[in-house]
Automatic annotation (TrEMBL):
Function: Catalyzes the ATP-dependent phosphorylation of L-homoserine to L-homoserine phosphate.
Transmembrane spans: none
InterPro entries in alphabetical order: GHMP_kinase_C_dom (IPR013750), GHMP_kinase_C_sf (IPR036554), GHMP_kinase_N_dom (IPR006204), GHMP_knse_ATP-bd_CS (IPR006203), Homoserine_kinase (IPR000870), Ribosomal_Su5_D2-typ_SF (IPR020568), Ribsml_uS5_D2-typ_fold_subgr (IPR014721)
Gene from which this protein is expressed: thrB
Entry keyword Ubl conjugation: no
Cell location: Cytoplasm
Catalytic activity: L-homoserine + ATP = O-phospho-L-homoserine + ADP + H(+)
Pathway: Amino-acid biosynthesis; L-threonine biosynthesis; L-threonine from L-aspartate: step 4/5
Annotated Pfam families: GHMP_kinases_C (PF08544), GHMP_kinases_N (PF00288)
Name of this protein: Homoserine kinase
SUPFAM superfamilies, per the entry: GHMP Kinase, C-terminal domain (SSF55060), Ribosomal protein S5 domain 2-like (SSF54211)
Binding site for ATP: P91, L92, A93, R94, G95, L96, G97, S98, S99, A100, S101
Amino acid sequence: MNAESEMFLIRVPASTANLGPGFDSIGLALGLYLEIHGSLSDHWEVVPLSEEMSVFPRDDRNYIVQIAKETAASYGKELSPCRLFVSSEIPLARGLGSSASAIVAGIELANIVGELHLSNEEKNRHASLFEGHPDNAGASVYGGLVVGLHTEERTDVVSFPIEGVKVIAVIPHFELLTEDSRNVLPNSLSYKDAISGSAAANVMLAGVLSKDWKLVGEMMQSDRFHQPYRAELVPHLALIEEVVHNEGGFGAALSGAGPTVLCLASPEKSEGLLTGLKDRFPEFHVKELEIDNDGSYTAILSEQEKKELKFLKS
Ligand SMILES: Nc1ncnc2c1ncn2[C@@H]1O[C@H](COP(=O)(O)OP(=O)(O)O)[C@@H](O)[C@H]1O
Ligand SMILES: N[C@@H](CCOP(=O)(O)O)C(=O)O
């Protein structure tokens, strides 16, 4: 990019990780978005357009800018400064992948401004290195359901679109940092538990591929890797599982590291489940979310599209 009059758009979906037993390996992209409208400028400026974004630095100390600069630097490039208008529908520290969305946004920023021409595989490798695991990062890059393995040496992710199941998120008002929720996990697992945990993840994935959502729901609640240890931090999980069972939903699991709980239901049962959860948990935000099968998106805006941006007029 070299014209200051050009404006770009970056849109990155939220994500839910693990789906129960797929710890640090399975993720699903969701229809809540982090959006950046940006253009070249003579200095770095980050303008928050949504309340949650207003807590972050407004100059080049902003995490998204830091990620962008580091990504460009890894290709020997220095990014030209930009003015970025940032808004996000993704609540922070609730287990809906806000940190991965910020990382992927930073990589997309480096890609578009630095003209890096990165493939999705390369974007995901960078994002997984920053995030430490590929479940949220992969979902935000590719969209749909992702299954991945990330090591120091390489990141392998397979993604495929998901249809025919409804997703309801029960989002508490309190934050739970992923770091704190990882600190309660054990350093090792018995051979027996590891086999059972891995089998549950395998069967869950087979259930997804064969569209056997009832089986998927059962496997979501058969995790051995993290939910048993995190239960003390999220006492509402067991109560939500009960409501999901009573309302004929498929199952529930901690979304990422929590505290949000992700529930799956058939299109026929989702309305009843939504109402049941809202009635039982008035203190939480209960919301049906779309599945995003497209992943992160970037575009250069047309003159007409720029004219339609309300925040540029105020
Ligand atoms: N747009 C953003 N800009 C800067 N930092 C962000 C942004 N989004 C998330 N973060 C950082 O990530 C933290 C939340 O990450 P994390 O604890 O992994 O939870 P989650 O990713 O589930 O929302 C926030 O407290 C904040 O420090
Ligand atoms: N696999 C990770 C996922 C963390 O997701 P987040 O949305 O809570 O950041 C974990 O379970 O720790």
